[in-house]
Amino acid sequence: MVAGVGTAYAANTQAVLRPHCDWVDTQYLVQSCSVYSESMQKYVTVNIRASDGSSTNGERGVYFLDGIGAPADRNTWSYPQIGTYGAYSAQYTLVMPAGGAGSWMTDWNSDAQMTDGTTQKEQWETFLSSELPDYLNTNFGVSTSGNAIVGLSMSGGSALTLAEKHPTVWSVADGTSGFYQTDNPLGWFLIPFIQKYTAGINNGSTAMWGDPHSPTNSWGINDAGLNLAQLKKNGQTAIVSVGIGLPGSLAEWSALLTSMGGDPIATIYNIGVGVGLELGSLVSTVVLNIQAAITGAPVKFVYTFGAHDWTHWEQNLPSDALWVQNQLAALPTVTVVNSDGSIASTTATTTTSTTTTATTDPASTDPASTDPSGTGTEATVADDAPEGTPSAGVTPVSSETTEAGTPTDTTESTNSDPAATGSGSTAPASTSDDGSQGTTAPTGETGESQSTPANTEEPAPVTTDPTTEAPASTDTAATPAPSESAPVETTSGDSTPATDSAPAESAPTDTTATASTASTASATAVTKPATAPATVVS
What we know:
Elements: E1 16-17, E2 21-25, E3 30-37, E4 42-49, E5 61-65, H1 84-87, E6 93-97, E7 112-113, E8 119-120, H2 124-140, E9 147-152, H3 154-165, E10 170-176, H4 185-199, H5 204-207, H6 229-234, E11 237-243, H7 250-258, H8 264-295, E12 299-304, H9 310-330, E13 334-337, E14 343-347, E15 377-379, E16 397-398, E17 488-492
Parallel strand pairs: 1-16, 5-6, 5-9, 9-10, 10-11, 11-12
Antiparallel strand pairs: 2-3, 3-4, 4-6, 7-8, 12-17, 13-14, 15-17
Region (Disordered): 345-538
Protein name: Esterase
InterPro entries: AB_hydrolase_fold, Esterase-like
C-alpha cells in the first residue's frame, strides 16, 4: 500500500451519510461533519459535498477556506446562493471547514489569547494538511494527494502558502482577493491589528509566527510571495484573481446598496470598506504578478471589475472553478493498491525536491500560450465547462452505525479521535423551497453575532431528523451570472498551465502588470447576509 493513503471508502456515494455527520443541506447533498483535531484538541465542523464517484482520474477534493470572520458553525462557501455546487462538477468532493476566524489558517507558535480572557489553540495548517485529509480518505475515499485548495481574502494568501508548503496534498491553488506579502513592516503591524479588532485576538503579533524581529520567527516561510518559486519547483499550478476595487455589474451595485437594510451611513461605510480592501488586494496581487514573472512560477492572474464582496466573488466563481477543474483533470493518475491487493484509489503525484513523481504532461499545454522568455505574461482564455453537475434526483440516506459509530452498510470507516462514539455535528437538514438555509447570520465586524438585515433575511428553517431520507427532488444549483466586465487574464512563468478556451461573452486581453509597493493583510469584516451575500467579508 502506498504510504500516506489509508483505507479507501468502499462506496463513495453522495447520498450516503457518513459517520459523525448530519445533513445540513439535503437539496445539494451537503453534510456537516465533526472532525476531531488532535492538534487543536477540539472538534471542527466541516461541510462536505461528497463526489458522485464518477471521476476516472482519482477521487480528488477541493478545499475551501473562509475569510477573516469565518463562523465556527458553517463555512460561507457552503451556502447554496454562493454558487459553489453549480460551479464544481459532482465528480469532486467539496471540503469546506468552518472556523479559523483571524487565524490566517496557519499553525501558531503559542495559544491565541482572546480579549474575553480565554485562550485557544490555532493549529490550522496541521489540521488542513494532515488530520483532515486522513479523515476524508477514511470516510469519503478522497485521496491524500493531488487535490486543490481555494481561499479568499484572509485565506487567499493562506491557500497559496499551504500549497507551497504541502505540495503532495495540493497540486492546484486558487487565491481570490487575497493579501500575499506578509513578511514586511506593514504586515507585522496590520495583521495583529486586524486580528484584535475583528477576531478578538490580543497577541497575534508574537503568538502566531513569533516576534518578527526575532531570528527564529516564521513570518518569512508563511509569506506566499517570498515562496512563490516553490510552485514551479513542485510542479504545481495556481490561479490568482482580484477586482480593481470598483463594482463591475448592476447586480453588485444593487446588492451593496441594499446590504445594510437601507441605512445610508452604514451603506456608504460598507461600500468604502469593500472598495478599499479590494484596492489593497489589487496592489498585493500586482506585486505577486511581478514576483511570479521573476521566478517563473506557473500562476494565472485574472483582473476584473469588482469590490471586496460576495457578489463579485460569485460572478467570478464559475470561471475560476473551471480553471481549477481543468488543472485537476490534467494531473496524471496512479493506481493505489492496498496490502490485500485491492484497489484503494487512483490519485495524482506531484514533483517535489524529495520525491520522484510525475508532472503535468507537456502535451496538455498549448504552445501558443507559453511565454518563451519565461519572465513575461501571456493572455490565456477559459475552456468549455467540464461535464458533470451536482446530482439531481438522488435521495440521501444515512449509513447505519453500531454503538462504536462504525457503518454496517457497504462502507468501511475508522475514526482515530478520542470520542469515536460521538454522533458528530447536530446541524439538522434545513432547506426552503429555493434551497436557502435557515441559519444565524455570520459574525460582524466586531466579531459579535449580528442579525441579518430584513431585506436579506432567510426563511425560517424547517428542522428534520438528519437520519431520515431527504426529498427525492434535488434541483441543481444555479450558476451565478457572469460579471458584465470582461476579465483580463495573464499567465506568468515558463511552465504554462493547461490552457482554456474562452466563453463567447469573454474578451480577455494581454496585459503586463506593474507595481512598486506591496499591500498586505485584510481589514474589517462586516455581516454576510444569508440570501444576498454582497457585504464585505475578508
